[in-house]
Amino acid sequence: MSAIYLLKELLKASEKAANIARVCRQNERLLNLLVQEKDKDESNSRFDHDFKTLADCLIQEMIKYEIGKQFPQLRDNIRGEENASFTNTAGESIIVSVTDDPANTRDILEKILKGDKESASALVDEVYRNIEIDLEKLELPTELIPLDNDLTELGIWIDPIDGTAEYIKGEEKYTKYPNIVSSGLKCCTVLIGVYEKCQGTPIIGVINQPFAEKISDQEVYQGEYKGKIFWGLSIGDLKYNNISPHETDARVALLSPSEQPKYIEFIRNQLKYDVIYSSGAGYKILKVATGEAELFLLSKGTTYKWDTCAPQAILRSMNGDLFNLQDTLINKAVKKISYQDHKVTRNLGGLIAYQNIDKLREFLKL
């Protein structure tokens, strides 16, 4: 089967996901209805309070439905961040699901939304909307690129909204670099990554940034934002993407605001990087792929496979990669992040991302 055909369907699903994210975010009352705190066993240890939204659950189940419908052999190998169970204000636990029957999906959403038929119908319209994307604008290859694997040998990791806390707060904070924000809706991304199960290698990545650009008040669009879609494909020696790298003289390192001081000091004082703090693992790795940052480092094991699969595939399409930080620093073995065992979901050794592997070598010398 053609890898481009699979990529096209992933791109369509990501744009449908972005539409749902914008519809949910544009109505403050609806957003408040949609937010609930995660259970302890599914929350991220970084946060005192970790939240999920109905948008997260609905997007994840929609992507599973869309891709599973097009590629039945993949259906059992599609995994995501969120537990599909959502509890409404009456304390009733409801499983969010998307099926061939829009009426069934509408009934589920109405229960969650306390009988709000208008909001449920608006969400269902987006879930079943026929999405057309501009393939020429997205710069997809025209040649046939066969998959090296049977579909049953592939897996997919989904992060329906990477940066849920930013999605809920929506407060935009900028850095001194105009194309890098420290927090806010621009940090939110929809991540869909395809990997080879046998080798654990990510081969196709799609990152959709639903809130990439705020549009003028005169235009009517989903939530007054336009999105951007980035993709990368790396199969064997074939590497394609739609990213035009930025040229910058600045040496920028992107870190989490909670990073350990010893790493901050080393990166700033020994490596002479300009340290910038930003939210969202997917967003930070994307900025390394675009060349707007040279390095992303995270010393703690607080990211998961759904955070990294898609952006790593894009990095690999640009001859970069994502590495286990602790193995690389302590064991002196440059170990790439792998997806062989889908039961091991956390990236326990931390992360280091470079687009330019020569820069990684310089880092290791120091």
Automatic annotation (TrEMBL):
CDD domains: IPPase. Keywords: Lithium, Magnesium, Metal-binding. SUPFAM superfamilies: Carbohydrate phosphatase. The keyword Metal-binding applies. Mg(2+) binds at E81, D159, I161, D162, D307. Its EC number is 3.1.3.57. It comes from the Eukaryota. One of its GO terms (molecular function) is metal ion binding. Its cofactor is Mg(2+). The keyword Zinc does not apply. It holds the Pfam family Inositol_P. It catalyses: 1D-myo-inositol 1,3,4-trisphosphate + H2O = 1D-myo-inositol 3,4-bisphosphate + phosphate; 1D-myo-inositol 1,4-bisphosphate + H2O = 1D-myo-inositol 4-phosphate + phosphate. PROSITE patterns: IMP_1. Belongs to the inositol monophosphatase superfamily. This is inositol-1,4-bisphosphate 1-phosphatase. It comes from Anopheles epiroticus.
